[in-house]
Amino acid sequence: MNVPFLDLSIQHRLIKDELDRVFDEIIGTTAFIQGEQVERFEREFADYVHSRHAIGVANGTDALHLSLRACGIGPGDEVITAANTFIATTEAISAVGATIVLVDMDPVSYTIDPAKIEASITPRTKAIIPVHLYGQPADMAAIMDIADRHGLLVVEDACQAHGARYGEKRVGTIGAVGCFSCYPGKNLGAYGDAGIIVTDDDAIADRIRLLANHGSRKKYEHEIEGWNSRLDTLQAAVLRLKLKHLDHWNVERQEIARRYTEALAGSGVRPPSIVHGDHVWHLYVVETPDRVALSAALSDQGIATAVHYPVPLHLHAAYRELGYPAGSFPVSERAAGRILSLPMYPGMTPEQVDHVAAAIRQATTIVAAA
Ligand SMILES: *Cc1c(COP(=O)(O)O)cnc(C)c1O
Question: 247 CA to middle of ligand 1, Å?
Answer without folding.
Answer: 20
